[in-house]
Specification:
The chain is an alpha/beta fold and about 400 residues long. The protein is about 35% helix and about 15% strand.
């Protein structure tokens, strides 16, 4: 039961969210000190030689960490850059998470930690049966916790009006991965090795555009983030970037550009670094603050940067997996990825995206052992403090999915 102080805190958080809705949602996850970007690795206990967390340090992490569920590993697109959030591509044929497990695990953390943010992703989350059958158990549950910032990350193909209507009231952020507004480019990016017939892709693209038209009419533009993973030779041209920016301006959406993260070493040639991308965006009318990082220094970690395009605020994000500073900061920054086991019998934590390390939550969930659940989360963060991913190039994906003829 909430205490009086917690009730006041809950109301304050809700008030802050309402203030953010005026135009600052794009700045909500940016890390700054005294209004300036700072190197996140400077705050890392790893730099002090520590690889263990006391209880207070562990709980403090939840003030900034996001709990991120893969509701299903299945997807209705196959993007050439897909990380599958750290899992092998064969897992795309896996089972979906049980909504009851997702809700229970979320409530354990909400009630025992200062957790503020929960994301739902995939795969494609909107093809989970909770959405396709119209049950909307998850959407109904989110209304119980107005103090939590709920987000969903979709490719937009099945983000239908019926789903949007269920999400728009209780979700702070709806990320839609588009990557291009040109069908030919979009098809190249979302159709690895022509996995889908061209006719099917055209239908998907048409549905995506229809869904975007509906969303644009809902007066929720500040919640909408149009996401584009920028890849050299595919969607990094002035025409492609400008189309995204103008589309966002027209519909009052936030543009969000993400740095391409190679799944294979052979893909490094497709990276468009910050200096190059920011210069391109500036030529198109974007503005960055004077202290925005212009380089990809492996010894500094500034994962998120804001920019403005006329009256729209945008984002640029980078994971930096393999880089020294990113790896040293990962335990206090990266989302807590929770994924369904392939057999559908439970959930597991995936702490390091490039490595196939797992922390199985199934037994603790089945027994509703809250202490064990918290202990597993603590172990997963301490595992990251050992910086297991430093120097890794490529994400241990199956070679048969490698395609270097992307452009």
């Amino acid at each position: 039961m909430l205490s009086k102080n917690n009730s006041q805190k809950k109301a304050k958080i809700k008030k802050n969210d309402e203030q953010l809705s005026a135009g600052e949602e794009a700045a909500a996850t940016i890390r700054k000190k005294n209004g300036k970007y700072y190197d996140l690795s400077k705050a890392s206990l790893v730099n002090k030689g520590l690889i263990k967390l006391n209880d207070r340090q562990f709980l403090d992490l939840f003030k900034n960490l996001r709990l991120r569920f893969d509701l299903t590993t299945q997807c209705n697109a196959w993007c050439v850059f897909c990380s599958n959030e750290g899992s092998n591509y064969t897992s795309k044929r896996g089972r979906e998470a049980k909504i009851e497990d997702v809700i229970y695990l979320s409530e354990v953390l909400i009630k025992n930690t200062p957790l503020k943010s929960i994301d739902f992703s995939g795969g494609e989350p909107t093809i989970h049966s909770d959405f396709t059958k119209g049950e909307f158990k998850l959407a109904k549950w989110t209304k119980k916790y107005p103090q939590i910032r709920f987000s969903i990350h979709s490719n937009g193909i099945t983000l239908t009006p019926a789903i949007v209507d269920r999400l728009k009231g209780s979700f702070s952020r709806i990320g839609i991965s588009i990557h291009s507004l040109n069908f030919a480019t979009w098809n190249k990016i979302t159709n690895l090795n022509n996995f889908y017939p061209l006719a099917a892709q055209k239908i998907k693209f048409s549905r995506l555009l229809d869904n975007l038209k509906y969303i644009a009419k809902q007066n929720i533009g500040d919640k909408i983030f149009i996401k584009s993973v920028v890849m050299r030779g595919l969607n990094d041209s002035p025409e492609e970037l400008s189309a995204i920016l103008k589309f966002c301006e027209k519909n009052n959406f936030h543009p969000k550009f993400l740095e391409f993260e190679p799944q294979y070493p052979e893909h490094e040639k497709f990276i468009v670094g910050r200096r190059e991308l920011f210069a391109k965006l500036e030529r198109l009318g974007c503005h960055f603050s004077a202290d925005a990082p212009r380089h990809n220094d492996p010894n500094r970690y500034i994962p998120g940067v804001n920019f403005s395009y006329h009256n729209q605020k945008g984002l640029h994000s980078i994971f930096g997996c393999g880089d020294k500073a990113a790896c040293e900061s990962c335990y206090l920054f990266l989302c807590m990825f929770v994924k369904p086991l392939e057999g559908g019998r439970g959930l597991y934590l995936k702490p390091c995206p490039p490595l196939d390390t797992r922390f199985d939550l199934s037994w603790a969930l089945a027994k509703k052992d809250q202490k064990q659940i918290l202990d597993i989360f603590k172990m997963s963060r301490e595992y990251l403090m050992m910086t297991p991913g430093i120097g890794i190039k490529g994400w241990n994906k199956e070679e048969k999915y490698l395609n270097t003829n992307l452009c």
